[in-house]
Amino acid sequence: xxxxxxxxxxxRLLYKSPKFTAMTLAVLIGGLSISLxxxxxxxxxxxxxxxxxxxxxxxxxxxFKDGQYxxxxxxxxxxxxxxxxxxxxxxxxINRDIRLxxxxxxxxxxxxxxxxxxxxxxxxxxxxxxxxxxxxxxxGAEPVTLIxxxxxxxELNGDEDVLSKTLILNGQVTSVxxxxxxxxxxxxxxxxxxxxxxxxxxxxxxxxxSYYAFxxxxxxxxxxxxxxxxxxxxxxxxxxxxxLYDLPDVDKVAKIMTFQMxxxxxxxxxxFAFLNTVSWLIMLLACINVGNLLLARAVERQKETxxxxxxxxxxxxxxxxxxxxxxxxxxxGGILSLLLVxxxxxxTEILLHSWLPSGGSFWWxxxxxxxxxxxxxxxxxxxxxxxxxxxxxxxxxxxINLALRDGTRGAKSKKAGRISKILVTxxxxxxxxxxxxxxISGFIAHKFINLELGDDYTDVITARMTIPENKxxxxxxQTALIQTLMEQVKQHPQVTxxxxxxxIGSMKLTITGLxxxxxxxxPLVDTISVIGETSTVGVNLVAGRQFSRLDKLxxxxxxxxxxxxxxxYWPGESPLEKDFTITIDDKxxxxxxxxxxxxRMNPSTLFSKLDSADEIYVxxxxxxxxxxxxxxxxxxxxxxxxxxxxxxxxxxxxNIELTFQVQPAINNRNKMRESMKxxxxxxxxxxxxxxxxxxxxxxxxxxxxxxxxxxxxGIRRAVGASDRDIIYxxxxxxxxxxxxxxxxxxxxxxxxxxxxxxxTLGLFPVSFYFILAIGVVTALSVxxxxxxxxPTTRAVKMEPSLALRYE
Length: 807
Hints:
- Helices cover 50% and strands 19% of the residues.
- By secondary structure, it is of the alpha+beta class.
- The strands form two sheets. Strands 1, 2, 3, 4, 5, 6, 7, 8, 9, 10 and 11 form an eleven-stranded mixed β-sheet that branches. Strands 13-14-19-16-18-17 form a six-stranded mixed β-barrel.
- The two termini are 29 Å apart.
- Mean pLDDT is 82; it is low at 407-412.
């Protein structure tokens, strides 16, 4: 009965203070919604089980090479697959862009080359036909394919006689042997599945490809045992290959992860933890605000609480009376936040699946689910504890005698005054720090969106391809194939230029004539192999020449360097014909400079200026690679430009495999910018809500603090104090709290800014941080002073007789 009385009393108090109730609910809903949405969004991406039967036991297998994420090779798979005792299932696949030809045109469709057992591993059978079996993967077998439900409907109009149909895939007439169920796109976003030939079992260590691997661990074996067994088996194979084939000596470690975690390179937990930590901090800020507002109300009622305690009320009874306001607000806020997040998740589902061409990974589905509801309950309980229980316990555990003796009707109690000042100072500190850090984040996002990249992909089409090493095993064969393909593309009347490149890595540089104290003192420089003219992608020649057919195997090894490198090592003189040494594949290669090109952005310069890092271009005819990225520049407004590469590829060799769809090169750049813009909008939106939470808290606290001193204002006016003097007194007292809070925030910001400035190599000038600090201090000072000025003005306008009777 007493609990019902307390609930009714709390509801009556909330009803009598609609502005307070609405403000507190708004603060709480903002913080809870951000935290809950962040959790649900990234939980679905990283942790939610695959939407296939027994999806929670389906694992992806990766092989880390010297700590770097990598895949298992075909040679390693062939040698270890029959030795493993920890796995009940183990297999490989490779994702490729599959070209579906339609009359004179066509389209690229995401596909996978798989082996027998792949569909059994996913525990899913086709709705029509059969899956790929061992006969389909035999060398020379008839080309067959399974198709997705979407391909069946879109390309074959849902024809019931689909098993008698053929498709032209990668230039080959391919028989359809089955249709997978609607929504099935395992292992990621694939819609076509073709046999992975037994050729993979015959690959040599020198010509082997890398493959994605999957497996299920036996129930009697734990994860660590399975990883250890597979790591040891792969390393045994690799150690033998090092001796026989002169391969680099690296340490390989197998990692078994969920498919969701493997998609993040094993970093999903770190990303999930970081972003949820940020969202929890925002929720804590909301809880602090709500708790402070409720504590301020409890302070107003401290005499009432003391009287109740003096009359014999227990601490439990007092806490119950005080905290029901917070409980009711927290429950209502939790329910409304859950409904708001549910709507936001549904909108996110629609937005992202329409924004991503392939719809993203097949397990990316957002909406209301049991995990989101459970976390909403957890967040609500945490909110009740932080914003209701703690303030109520703090207020109920007061000294009765001090509370009854401290303060009069005409003055605010000393303890209440101290608490109010501490709360305002804390809020100023938190919001100042939030604004300073958030402002830097905003400027970084803005810089990334407007990056000067140093290249130009306008009217440039790109294709990524892998040369089949079993057919082109020698470097001369590989470079000849690339040149033939480039010539075929360049012959098209709509093509003006062609270039291929492949990022080799960051190579150790030795400049002839410079003294290096130790090997580790030598700089690492991004190195790219190139065939053709770099001007195709807007990296223009400054001095010397581009590579030619003469820069081939057996001739003097040449290099083109970026202008930044020329200025760094040969200032005021021509770098042409200078030489230097870089280490490629554990071998020192002496190169002679034949050209200098303009700088462009690379991974080393993302946090700095365009010329802060160097690039070296080597001739792709001298350093052959089986993986190449093609770029060809076409005439403005040219039509069907993607077909140019497909037609040339099919004319040269139909066995060439594309690892990505042929598309305008600017698409990747635009996707990056759009992603950064989306991230920027989310960051600014989140920051704005967090800032609003803090602002509301500061205004509420300061307004409440002034309102509690209405009696004092009335007394001062009654004894002759002017309105101006009273307002000045309140502003002066608020300025002290402001200075303390801002001072603490600026000290921490100075330390963070110093570390950030060094880390980013001077991304922003030092003056930027001073201007930012001045702007934040000014803006926050105006807000806080306004929060003090407005209620003070209302108080001084009140007649002294009314102010003395004010409740």
